[in-house]
Amino acid sequence: SEKDNSRNNNKPDTSFKDVAGLEEIKEELQETIDFINNPSKYKKMGAKIPKGILFYGPPGTGKTLLAKAVAGETCSTFLYASGSEFVEKYVGVGAKRVRTLFEKAKKDAPTIIFIDEIDAIGTKRNMESNNEKDQTLNQLLVEMDGFNTDDTVVIIGATNRLDLLDEALLRPGRFDRHIYIGNPNMKAREQILKVHTKNKPLDRTVNIKNIAKKTHGLSGADLANIANEAAIIAVRKNKNKISIEDFDAAIERVLAGLEVKNPTVL
Ligand code: ATP
User: How many angstroms is it from 46 CA to the middle of ligand 1?
Assistant: First the structure.
């Protein structure tokens, strides 16, 4: 998958062009990008680079993609980590992994550290006592407070549940910028579908706008999935172009899959 690939390829060539819709969010991230690209400009003015940005919202809306694009736009190293990878049976292992991650980030700076599912380590500490998780979270806070802003390291966290996060994580100097990334509206769905059909042969029956109209409530990941399923269905029928019937079948298939996962989704 793209995520696995990003682990090996530390300098992604993903750019904002690969992220459809989300124009306001890209606008908001321009400042961070400029910080990373021109640190001296900000240093002269006595401004500090923001360390932590939190993306929150439903799954599959492009949080990982966007973080990778910020790395691509700044020629930064991209380090992917998932919160769940840090929480181990043995106390201290997670904390050590956090230390190692930041060491690597500083060594290869400028770096974007992306921590997906940050709630796995960052939920409110009073909700249940978990020594390993608490130590991991504490280490993350220590690292975020500790590095000086001469190291151009920006940490982007992602979660579906902002409300569960420990307030210590959200304080100034830590994850103090919160950006909501929701499901795409019709215009954004159209743009996402365009990105994901760019290299696919479509016949004249396919009207992307109409498909965008029919896919209300679906995420970018679902739309990418639909475009791919439509192509697979066309191949199975030995066609050389994808038609609207293939898309309709793909939509049905993806919707059926979503209903199995979550019966209340639609
Ligand atoms: P999760 O919360 O499940 O980790 P996420 O918000 O990080 O999800 P991504 O992994 O970035 O979502 O998105 C999955 C895939 O969906 C992307 O690799 C891309 O193919 C597609 N996608 C999602 N949003 C967009 C978008 N705005 N533009 C283009 N493609 C998108």
Answer: 36
